[in-house]
Amino acid sequence: MTLNRGFLVPAGLALAGALVIVLLPFWLEDTNEYRFAFVAAFFIAALGLQILTGYAGQISLGHSGFMLIGAYVTTILSVDHGWNDLATIPLAGLVSAVAGFLFGFPALRLRGVYLALATFAIPIALIALAKKYEGLTGGGGGKSLTRVLTGHEAYMTTWPIAGVMFVLAWLILRGRLGRAFRTIRESEIAAVSVGVNLTLTKTLAFGISAGFAGIGGSLYAITIGFVNPDTFLIALSILLLVGVIVGGLGSLVGVIFGALFIEYVPLYAPEILDWVQRPLGLNLDPKAAGAPAVVYGSILLLVLYVAPNGVAGLLRSAIRILRRRLYTSTGTGPPGQVVPKRREA
Amino acid sequence: MTQFVQQVVAGLGDGAIYASLALALVLIYRATHVINFAQGEMGMFSTYIAWSLITNHGWSFWPAFFFTILVSFLGGAAIQQTVIRPLSRAGELTIVMATIALLVILNGLASWIWKPDEKLLLSPFPTGTWSVGDVQVPQQSVFNLLVVLVCVVLLWAFFRFTKMGLALRSSAVNPTASRLLGVRVTWMLAIGWGFAAALSAVAGMLAAPAQFVFSPNFMQVVIIYAFAAAVLGGIESPVGAVVGGLALGVTINLLGTYLPGQITPDMRLPVALAILLAVLIFRPAGLLGRAVVRRV
Amino acid sequence: MPLLELTDVHARYGPVRALHGVSLRVDEGEIVALLGANGAGKTTTLRAISGMVAREGGVVFDGKPLPRSPEGAARLGITHVPEGRGILAELTVRENLQMGAYLRRDRKGVAADLEQAYQELPWLAERSDQQAGTLSGGEQQMLALERALMSRPRLLLLDEPSLGLAPLIVREFFRLVRELNESRGLTVLVVEQNANVALDVSARAYLIEVGRVALEGESAELREHEGVRKSYLGY
Fold this sequence. Notes:
The structure holds three protein chains of three kinds. Chain A is an all-alpha fold. Chain A has 14 helices and two strands, in the order H-H-H-H-H-H-E-H-H-H-H-E-H-H-H-H. In chain A, strands 1-2 form a two-stranded antiparallel sheet. The longest helix of chain A has 27 residues, at 198-224. Chain A starts with a helix and ends in an 18-residue tail after the last helix. By secondary structure, chain B is mainly alpha-helical. In chain B, a hairpin with a 2-residue loop joins strand 2 (129-132) and strand 3. The longest helix of chain B has 31 residues, at 2-32. The termini of chain B are far apart. The longest helix of chain C is centred in the last third of the chain and has 18 residues, at 167-184. Chains in contact: A-B, A-C, B-C. Chains B and C meet through helix 6 and helix 7 of B and helix 2 and helix 3 of C.
């Protein structure tokens, strides 16, 4: 492990973030702790997507499907079979991981747009199945979990697990597998030529990523106390992707910003509209149907313009500018050269 | 047998709508190499404009139809210039995300302006059937198919025979070389988006009457079918998009007719995607896509 | 007055500076060569002229400052055949030639020029409906040249035309270029790594090294220059 400059900043941010997370419950009230628990669930699922899309370069619009699997494993085991809901979490992750791994195989030959569309099929198929097998899943009406948590309980359940998953993601990515992922993202042909087993690596990427999403889904179910197939529509997959991109593609630390974005911006959209329209003297109804969506979409666009590489990209640019100011003087370019004595290759 | 022909025609009518939207997706993909996730919502928004002209301002269908197409063309070009162009240096995924943001904005805007309650847009075509021997051919399906085919042929002729059509194709194939030949490539992109928006408007204005009532989400299922059709045909193939759309419409209709137990309306979409996945496993570049040879 | 004059032109790719003050001129009816090793800045110089890369410094064409965009340069009659030829691969041979005449409004003139191109290179006519991407490298280079001629350029910029081509084809290509220069007075600025062939075809040449003009003069004289001989001509 190299303790170079490139490592210190993300590590510093991660530690600072961990500190904030630990201290936050003392400051927040129960409702907000509750919301923050959702942030943790999204955070974990988005971490999974980041591993697959940001690191291995495989796009997925189907991760809400893997969240669905995790959520239903937890629900069915705890409600119908008396499991302790917390004990179901690892199994939820495992089942989702296997599902993701299995999906990886047919997806091997697909790329780009074709892969994206194939992943579309996952939540659509799973939702349809969940609605069909009512006996098991409670069908379209959904199923309630046995335990209802307070905000504080939800927070204390979800965030430690989020911390563990973050460290797990970091460990996976800094090892051989992570390097293999990154090589595949750059060029599959190059990856094969350095000995990466493409089949295994890609399916592992899907599997691991799905496992994370499954755990996120499981925690989501535990927090909200209720599952319903329509929670996991493609819109949720897209939301996770928004989180990954707003945070910054390829940045684990950035994912937390993405998770905060997807939980809080839609929530505060009416307030933001009010805040924007007052100096303009407008009198629009911020609670009107569709108004929050317009606000949310506009903010998303704004973020994309201002930070096309996400929050992580912004931070990186800021640090680069700071470093240049501190360490270098402005140069004008390399000095000239006489006619070379030997022809360059 | 008569049932079969009827269902095929009905399927072609549905498929024509998917084909129109699929062609829009392919146009934009060829030009900018991104999937415009907002394509369906753009068509939805155009449909609301047409509805408003007809219901609130007393226009009759066809003037509203053509006017909406024109407005949609301009709107599509404007969106490309203001929303997409500033991001052209960012990664493809960022641009895709921008189209998703656009999707959210357009959907919200339609609800905001026109309220999310169900509206009615009447088809200009008769809803009866013609009797051809034993077969009852649904008239609306035939007319929908004709409208879309006319649009497709006009577009094809434009691309094939006009100078601007050639410049548009050139810009999609090699933007840098095209600029060196004097083509204003960013304008070409805007025009491409304009045509795509016009096609989406056609899809929307035909789909709304076909669904009886419509509300802001009415194009979301259509775009998934269109996406499937475009990919099925090969994402860079306009012919593939049209053939894929028609084929998908017919296949789903036939499956729904002959396997009503398994293929309930809820199951149609998953089945469509299952078919698509099956095709992709054997032809990863779609039916008419260019097979990229990668031995890896 | 020269047709094209560069004065102290700088250019960069993002934070990397590639040209550090290049000055050169091309007179009407001349063939001028830009020589230099890989990465010296020859291609960048052409790109700076045609506006493909951002530049600082004076670029004057026909007495007026040159616009900074490729479309703008093309409109004034500068046709740049880029490195790798810039063939429109999925379009047919004929469509490529037609795109060469994109900026022209005289349809009869374009049709006549197309005929002439077919006569100069009969195989173009035979393959006119073939996809340009299926042509061989040498054929593509010829097509790129004919396409450039379709615009009736005042100045032709050729970027590494010999790259990847067999010596026989390279000779044929430059024979055609010299013939066009002599018969039509076509002005050419050609970038070439193959110094031998470049000095053969050109009247004057500039040697670019590390983003600057290191040497300039008549091609015949540069041929005898010891440094040039040792480093670029191999003897």
